[in-house]
């Protein structure tokens, strides 16, 4: 039996009821361009293969790859031995099959993401969002709560805001530790992420957006007047339609985009951060 490796953050799913719910939520179609991140021992891989003409998978663990190869006919499974943080997902784009709906050539990405790389991986995928139709992931519940939170929610923060221009976040259901081997110490959530065709609010300065959000949430109990004083003064904050006495936790993502646009107008020099900067 292959043992989970702590350095890879492995927790192998084994609960058949949960696996069934996951596959039903993904609803794979025969000609989908599906990619699985970290197939591990194949808990989701095998049910997906029964419904797909081809499945690409990205796996870093050579022993897991050997285990997969020994379990079933690999004709439809194409495993790429790589670190997902270095992998170019756009390289897997394929032409749509004749008669397929528009967008079928784009990637549908699934996986049980290691908790220790989930945030940087999400931002890597955002950078390649034009190649992606949707994503279905198992993530730590606390992370999904932050991803899906709205202003004034307790979980609302930098991650919530940074994802808002690029992804629709739809938590589907929770998965308890007992569904995995070894069981993690946290509850997971299965979530659907769908890239927006265009941002749901005006987004003219993505790099400035990242800088403003980072500053605003660096010390979240500070008012914007104090948190943003190195970037914008009170008058400039008001120009964006924002009360400088408010805190970041009550400002909607569109408000941060407005602040970023003001910052871009007054200081157009490029900044180092961009829309793909991971948010803690």
What's the SSE blueprint?
Layout: E1 12-13, H1 16-26, E2 33-37, H2 45-49, E3 55-59, H3 62-71, E4 77-81, E5 107-112, H4 118-127, E6 132-140, H5 141-148, H6 158-163, E7 167-175, E8 180-181, E9 188-195, H7 206-218, H8 224-227, H9 234-239, H10 253-266
Parallel strand pairs: 2-3, 2-5, 3-4, 5-6
Antiparallel strand pairs: 1-8, 6-9, 7-9
Please count the helical segments: 10
Order of helices and strands: EHEHEHEEHEHHEEEHHHH
Q: Number of domains in the coordinates?
A: 2
CATH fold name of the largest domain, please? Rossmann fold
Question: What share of residues is helical?
Answer: 25-40%
Strand content: 15-25%
Distance between the termini: 35 Å
The first-level CATH class of the largest domain is given as Alpha Beta
Low-confidence blocks of residues: 4-9
The description of the largest β-sheet is: 7 strands, mixed
Give a short summary of the structure.
The chain is of the alpha/beta class and 280 residues long. The chain contains ten helices and nine strands.
């Amino acid at each position: 039996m292959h043992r989970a490796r702590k350095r890879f953050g492995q927790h192998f799913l084994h609960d058949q009821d949960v696996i069934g719910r996951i596959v039903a939520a993904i609803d794979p179609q025969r000609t989908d361009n599906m990619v699985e991140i970290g197939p591990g021992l194949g808990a989701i891989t095998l049910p997906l293969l029964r419904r797909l003409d081809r499945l690409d998978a990205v796996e870093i663990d050579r022993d897991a790859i050997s285990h997969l190869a020994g379990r079933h006919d690999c004709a439809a499974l194409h495993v790429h031995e790589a670190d997902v943080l270095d992998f170019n997902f756009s390289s897997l784009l394929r032409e749509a099959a004749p008669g397929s709906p528009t967008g079928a050539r784009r990637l549908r990405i699934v996986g049980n993401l290691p908790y220790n790389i989930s945030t940087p991986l999400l931002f890597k995928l955002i950078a390649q969002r034009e190649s992606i139709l949707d994503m279905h992931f198992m993530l730590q519940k606390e992370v999904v709560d932050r991803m899906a939170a709205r202003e004034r929610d307790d979980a609302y923060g930098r991650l919530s805001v940074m994802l808002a221009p690029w992804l629709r976040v739809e938590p589907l259901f929770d998965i308890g530790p007992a569904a995995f081997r070894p069981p993690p110490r946290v509850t997971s959530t299965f979530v659907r992420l769908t890239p927006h065709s265009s941002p749901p609010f005006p987004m003219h300065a993505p790099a400035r957006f990242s800088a403003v959000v980072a500053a605003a949430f660096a010390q979240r109990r500070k008012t914007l007047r104090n948190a943003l004083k190195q970037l914008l003064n009170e008058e400039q904050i008001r120009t964006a339609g924002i009360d400088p006495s408010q805190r970041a936790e009550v400002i909607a993502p569109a408000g941060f985009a407005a602040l970023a646009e003001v910052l871009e107008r007054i200081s157009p020099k490029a900044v180092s951060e961009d829309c793909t900067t991971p948010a803690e």
